[in-house]
Amino acid sequence: MRRLMLALPFALLPLVAHAHEEGHDHEHEHEHGSLGAHEHGVARLDAALDGQTLELELQSPAMNLVGFEHAASSDADKAKVAAARKTLEQPLALFSLPAAAGCKVTDQELESPLFGDKPDHEHSATQAKQGDEHHHEHSEIHAHYHFTCASPKALDHLDLARLFSTFPATQKIQVQLIGPSGQQGTDLTPTHSSLKF
């Protein structure tokens, strides 16, 4: 399954290239090497369903989930980070997977400089040497989930309404999905938050 998710970005390059031609934000290039730009209000979700295994990978600017991107120093900021992490640690509720599918979390991984993960110091040092005016940190939050679903046929759709309502600063989620009916890509919004597998 891991190979499937690693292949996903390559399989969808034509879709991503087309999206970049239509509206690419050159000002905030994503510094972690994933496809797309760091754009506040926009997140990305890669989803793959293979047999009974569902894998979801969410990538979002921290601004969308906690309201800032700097290291949390105040008690209020630390509380926001802790609350976002606690919510992200409950993916069955966050992604509204149909109960009939019988999905169980088998593995999950959350990472972000805001969670104490080390930022890319080499990139930051290069920016400082170049006197880059955009030296501020573009913190991201990455959440990677593996589920085993007893009845995967019941996974007929993916509903992100709860994710949008929980993190209202997220205005659009670029979804790339590989499922039984092939691959598809679309943008979901708070008013159009569901995608069929």
From TrEMBL:
Region (Disordered): 111-140, 178-197
Biased composition (Basic and acidic residues): 117-140
Record's signal peptide: 1-19
Keyword Thylakoid attached: no
Alphabetized UniProt keyword annotations: Signal
Protein name in UniProt: Zinc-binding protein
Biased composition (Polar residues): 181-197
UniProt keyword Repeat present: no
